[in-house]
Amino acid sequence: MSFGPACPLCGGTGPKVFVREARGHRLWDCRDCGTGFCDPFQNPGPAYYERNADLYSSTARAETDPMSFEYDEALALLRRARAPGARLLDVGCGDGGFLHRAKAEGWAPSGLDFNPARAKALRERGFEIFDGALPELAARAPAAFDALTIFQVLEHLDAPNDWLRAASSLLKPGGLLVVGVPNRDRTFDPFQGPGLDVIDDPPHHLTRWSAPALSGLLARAGFRTLECRPLGYPLPLLRLMLRNTLRLGLATRALGVEQVRHASTAAAKGRPSSRQRLIRSLVSAKEAVLDAATGAVYPLFQAACRARGWQGAVLFAAAKKPG
Ligand SMILES: [Zn+2]
Q1: Which of 52, 85, 148, 263 gets the highest tally of CB atoms within 10 A of its CB?
Q2: How far is the CA of 137 from the centre of ligand 1 (A)?
Q3: How many structural domains compose the chain?
Q4: pLDDT tens digits for 99-155?
């Protein structure tokens, strides 16, 4: 136990639990609000995300995105709240996977993203896309939206309180906020495996969230939490988990991590050699076998999750702005 820095989430100055060092940062746990945070507490900026673009799979085709299950949960919840033409803002909209799905359900969706190329591509497809930080937008468009969604963004922010207050300001009274973050109490980490960076460490993720910590953040921003719970492991996520766990590292060493993850991107960079083509074929064959095996054991895995209370990798919360 050590005093450590003041908690950037709740402001608590009491003793903190020192967790470990990670990539030039110290990780702390706040005993007051239950959030894990790093010191220094600073988002690395857009250039970092440009350099690590391969960490972000395309979400444009929702059916191929292993994270689209949180979209399913959000849309099921939002379906009950939608009025014709209701406006929705997806914060950190990326390639627009959720925007497409929300539009198909009758919402008038807008997005916010700091990546100019992605914003431009979505504008060309007819979406209204804002750039910059959410607090800046809140100053320009108060009470403009019926719903806000923030998937896998909060853990990257160095001013989450400001963004949550901005979310409240952007919502109409009675408006809905849906949040998805990595669950620090997860039983398995689908994104971990040999040869992969720990993406939950800073400067990538600055905070670690449990259900009580996330509920506390929402309450401090003036929201009434409707639900806050871990989601399970849908089949695509289990597939990803087993693929990552059983990485041999051979193809990674031969081709580079980026090329394995995004073979199509690598192919665009030049003609692959016959050795590279052979390794890619072997990787594809291994993944096909793994995918088939995962499908076969999935019902057993689900039963084990229920029986043993295994917590999912994503924490899902819905909250309401008081009306
Ligand atoms: Zn705290």
Answers
A1: 148
A2: 26
A3: 3
A4: 999 999 999 999 999 888 889 999 999 999 999 899 999 999 899 999 999 999 999
Q: Measured between alpha carbons, how far is 236 from 295 in angstroms, rounded to an integer?
A: 9
Question: By C-alpha distance, which of 261, 160, 143 is closest to 207?
Answer: 160
Distance 222 CA to ligand 1 centre (A): 17
Domain extent at residue 22: 1-41
Q: Residue 295 is encoded by which pair of tokens?
A: 């499908």
Distance 206 CA to ligand 1 centre (A): 13
The dihedral sign for the CA sequence 10, 13, 15, 20? positive
- Residue 59 and residue 123 in one domain: yes
d(CA 214, CA 125): 34
The single residue listed with the structure tokens 């401090």 is 220
Query: Tens digit of pLDDT for each residue in 227-273?
Result: 999 999 988 888 888 888 877 666 666 655 444 444 444 444 567 77
CA of 205 to the centre of ligand 1 (A): 16
58 with 126, same domain? yes
pTM passes above 0.90: no
Q: What does the pLDDT look like over 108-121, one tens digit per residue?
A: 999 999 888 889 99
Give the DSSP H/E element, type plus range, for residue 246.
none
Judge if 130 and 160 occupy the same domain.
Answer: yes
* 133 and 188 both lie in a single domain: yes
CB 319 within 8 A of CB 174: no
Using the mean position of ligand 1's atoms as its centre, give its distance from the Cα of residue 255 in Å: 43
Using CA atoms, how far residue 75 sits from 103, 169, 174, 175, in Å, is 11, 22, 17, 15
From residue 157, how far is each of 8, 130, 240 by CA, in Å?
Answer: 11, 17, 25
Measured in angstroms, how far is the CA atom of residue 29 from the centroid of ligand 1? Answer: 8
- Record the tokens describing residue 7, joined without a space: 């908690």
pLDDT (average), residues 76-83: 85
